[in-house]
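Anyone have tokens for 4-alpha-glucanotransferase? Sequence:
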Amino acid sequence: MRFARSGGVLLHPTSLPGGCGIGELGPEAYRFLDFLHAGGQRIWQMLPLGPVGPDGSPYRSYSAFAGNPLLISTERLVRDGLLDEAPPDAPGDAVDHTTAGKLKRELLRRAHLRFVPPPGFRKFCRANGWWLEDYALFTALKRAHGGRAWNEWGRELRTRDPAALEEARRELADELEFQRFAQYLFFRHFWDLRRAANGRGVRIFGDIPIFVAHDSADVWANQHLFHLDSGGDPSVVAGVPPDYFSETGQLWGNPLYDWSAMEREGYGWWKSRLRMALSLCDIVRVDHFRGFEAYWEIPAGEPTARNGRWVEGPGARLFETLRAELGELPVVAENLGTITPEVERLRRRYELPGMKVLQFAFTDPENEYLPHNYTDPNFVVYTGTHDNDTTPGWWASATEEERSFARRYLGREEPSVWDFVRLALSSVADVAVIPMQDLLELGSEARMNTPGTPAGNWQWRMRPDAAAPQLAQRLRELSRLYNR
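Reply: yep, here.
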């Protein structure tokens, strides 16, 4: 699917100011929409929106279908009479997912005590029961088991014995109702935000990881669709092989899909996943797109990703099925890193935009990430992504060779972050997206994620006065200049 020439900003909602020490889908989200509109932006890109664990990683969610209750607006809970008052914002600029999660859950449980289900609540539960009931029971059972992973529960629950599940539903009925309530609020708040965005001419650009977490409702409820052993552990796991950046590769540890089983079911799980993502977002980026063509399979128990093998993915069979079911696919393919001609042929066959990142560009004139080499405009260009340092942070740590090349390429003795923003916006790429940290000219302290590091990620939060009118005006002028 081709997108109109446009520009946007990358900012995950958890990075908004306000709330319980974490961004929410409340007033600050609507103020950010006003900033985008004033800045002439037509896209708000976010990271995955599912429920997260204590580390806050949106790429390691407990569900591919549920929403993150931490994003529920406390201001709206007060407005709806479910709380007397919203708590003051937690001090500090960084998100503390553990503290925020504890506080938000306490507030939600208080709000649930006052909740009188309107007709829309039961309608929501019926329409979404196909995923909601498994997610609610998974979450309730996980809480009852002290947070332990599902394959550490008793055999009857681990293997989903019908009698054991029915008994659990009776014993945990109140908790199940609370989980339904929390999901109802998330979707209600997010759908309202999306309508407000579309009313301002802004599209929501979402993100789904290709793989799901082992400790998730998805794997527990659909064990036959994954490569698992008799105890529920993965028999093979996902990752990427050794490359220029890592001698041992990356061992992600996600369970791998049994694509033969998925094909026998007509790829129904993937149809539902993409349909759900598009109920929240107008556009969806699929992380690690190359895994659909071929994926790196690592035997479980390996200490690194070195001893793996490439296995053929579903490729065109999956995308033909998705297109037949959903029509033209508003999907962006993450095609960064080592990408084979076969992967690019698959992407181009379905006209899926790829990605370009300027931070990768400044090595030699033939580098594919340099704008003069963009022979195909069907791309989204970024100064950097959530997995990169901010552009000022990257510049501070770049090699002297990269800096020298960038100076000559930009014609600037000491380039500013706005020179890189201008380069992205002026390129022929159909879409240009700039991380909010770059618009604010922030350094490495504002980096969202450092891949391969277990702590200190997903914590950056924007100051309340950061999205200023002057910044919107500057962005609007450049967007007009380059017809975005």
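DSSP finds 18 helices and twelve strands in the chain.
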